[in-house]
User: What shape does this take?
Amino acid sequence: MLEIRDIYKTYDDQSLLHGISLRLDASETICLLGASGSGKSTLLRMIAGLEIPDSGQVMWEGRDLASTPAHLRDFGLVFQDYALFPHLDVFDNVAFGLKMKSRGNGEIEKRVNEVLNLVDMNNFNRRKVTDLSGGEQQRVALARALAPRPRMLMFDEPLGALDRALREDLLYQLRGILHRTHIPAIYVTHDQEEAFTIADRVLMLHSGRIVREGTPTEVWTDPGSAWAAEFLGLGNVVEGSCGSRDEKLKMWNIITSSGSFVVKCEHKHNVGDKVYLLLRPVQTEDGSVIRGRVADVVFQQDRFKVTLENNLFAYLQNAPKIGQFITVKVAVKCLG
Assistant: This one.
């Protein structure tokens, strides 16, 4: 299907993308997840044909797309700002791509009605798009992208302008549409909840490189680096140094400012090497612990984020009092 080979891109003598390679399979949805400036939107624009890489290839079914202009790639695009035509009503916005392909009036009407029904907008044909809410406009933008039956869909922060409740509702609807239509898709976002909800596979971008790739479960369970763990908010990331090692059990004694932790680690280290640990609060009877005096307590949905005076934090079901000294059991993972 789609294959990206060793893409590089530089802006104003600053390297933006460093040898990006990835593959998108049939009916698969992948998500490019990363902070602003990580290069994910630029990569999407190169796939779309809106920008040219300094080097590397964008391949579709084994054919290099370098000489194929954007409008001939048959890729659908959905943006955060909707990019609808304000002078056209809903029907004509959705029909635009079909008209550009010189489809007949009967075929256009049938297809427009099909995709409007797919996005729950079948009674809005002749409404002005400027009279629609943000969520309704994004549904129209999705219908317009779907109408020409694209080979692939691409989404660039499509829900960023919507409030939380509407964003969640549209996200699950979009997930269902992609599963029903079997159209391969690339979804760009900085929001991990969006990424883990919609993606079959998540690719985390940092400083122009893919630093972690896997299913949502794989990435959540093993972020693979200190940066990824911190970006995802998985727990406390602390720096430590390697002390003694039990060669038989492959266990290191890691010394940190928050205490010493005995950790099984498959990475190759020497005594004194700097490493990073991920400390995730768990409900177990044994294991490692972190201790400290409570500095702040914030309610977050169904739990409390408790920050200690040593800047470590934990999510707890019951709120301790500020100033209280607490002990929290943690699972410890070596991030290398």
